[in-house]
Amino acid sequence: MSIGSFARRSGLTASALRFYADAGLLLPTEVDPVSGYRFYRDAQLEQAVLLRRLREIGMPLATAKSVLSAGRDDAVLLVDEHLDTVVGGARAARQQAAIIKAALAAAPAPVVVAVSGPVLAAAIEQVLTATTDDPDIAVLGGVRFEADSGVVTVTATDRYRLSTRTLAVDNAHSVTWAATVSGDDLHSCLTDLRRAPLARIEATEHGIWMRLPDRTDRHCRLLAEPFPDFRSMLGALPAVTTRIQASKTLLLRALEERSAGLISIHATEAQVTVGDNCNGPGTGICLPARVSGTSVEVWFEMTTLYPAISTAIGADVLLDLAGPELPATVRSADNRDLTTLVMPTKPRPAEENTEPKEEDE
To answer: Residue 311: pLDDT above 50?
Structure first.
């Protein structure tokens, strides 16, 4: 077919096809020696469409040429590497833009919190496990900062988990302040924050500055959407009916030995049994525990329960249960500054074998 017909069918322009031919990416099948007209075959359409799509995601010519000549697995790897580069560049540009806007602000930024860098880094890392990347609800990817009465509280929620921790501040005259900070920006600050003995947080209209002695100051964007009213939810929680105190190490080990997506916590008078929906009755792992209150069995998604247990502080954890359908609270047995709420789920039977059975002749 002519270059015009091939251009229409592939979605590329004729000039682009000439450029790609000159660059050695997509050569015509035949070139008329007299007129110089270029001709292509149907078999080349798939490669032409792939080339167009690669260029639409901003892939450089050299990388696109490697994709076209690579096997399937190597081509997928090259696309993933390019995507990582694009996403990383966009994130860096977004952060730099926020820094530029903050630097252009005329008003001086007041210090609202001064706190130990390693302690703040640990608190942020703990509550970040309760964030989620939801493009429709961007605020669920943020961390709520609230400073008041000599403490700062950091909170995050993805609607299935809620994690909150309160820290004492070092500045003598702390101010009352609240804002929701980008979780992605906070995550990028953790390495520097861990190595700073003191972090002074300054508030601006669009972000916060983390002033770190002997290190590069870091800027984090604010999220404008309203943060969920978690304090009302906490205040409306019903009374605890069952309290479990168990070894964090043993509980995590039991969870790690379960390969199912749903996990059951069955509390009786003297022990806790960790089971799942893939193994039959009697296959759970029994753990020694101090249990007060009524016996109960509660089911959780592994992806919500495990992070709540793993981020708890101390050797023992407390699980406060109010029933199989109400949020469970996870705390440290000796330090309750970190509190995580985990929503339970309904138990589902193990997946049955769906392969057709052989019928008798």
So the answer is: yes
